[in-house]
Write a structure and sequence with these properties.
This protein is mainly alpha-helical. The chain contains six helices and no strands. The protein folds into two domains: about 100 residues, Phosphoglycerate mutase-like (Rossmann fold); about 35 residues, no CATH class. Helix 2 crosses helix 3. It starts with 5 loop residues before the first helix and ends in a 10-residue tail after the last helix.
Length: about 140
């Protein structure tokens, strides 16, 4: 299963080509919009400094609410991502029960998926997030 974003699909094709993925050349990855990266809304592509400079009110809201709950205009909170992932996990369980499933997705989604599957607390997952980014093309098992 893959996020519909091109970079996730491209990674899947590379895995298929050189990684020995047991997926026939005529089979397609199942694209699922619930696996797309968190929507950052008006804060998209901005650094922490850029947010503070261009949207100081949002920097204040994030500081007050915390990273887990803050939803920028036009964007999502981590809780929003978790809500859509609950449905994706249900779909995986229903349609792929007992089988291994490769999910091609993005940083916040990987962390939120871990939060769900490992039954973590908010503090636990945010602690992992503070340790560093999920590397591009990394495998989380």
């Amino acid at each position: 299963m893959s996020s519909p974003y091109q970079r996730a699909q491209h990674t899947g094709e590379l895995i298929r080509g050189v990684g020995g993925l047991a997926l026939g050349s005529d089979q397609e990855f199942v694209l699922d919009e619930r696996l797309r990266e968190k929507e950052f809304g008006i804060l998209d592509r901005l650094t922490r400094d850029g947010i503070t400079e261009l949207h100081p009110d949002q920097a204040d809201f994030r500081r007050l609410l915390g990273k887990f709950y803050h939803r920028p205009p036009g964007g999502e909170s981590w809780c929003d991502v978790i809500l859509r992932l609950r449905g994706a996990v249900d779909t995986i369980s229903l349609h792929h029960s007992g089988r291994r499933v490769l999910v091609l997705t993005h940083q916040v989604v990987v962390l939120c998926m871990r939060y769900l599957l490992e039954q973590m607390t908010e503090d636990q997952i945010l602690s992992i997030d503070r340790e560093g980014d999920v590397a591009n093309c990394a495998v989380t098992e």
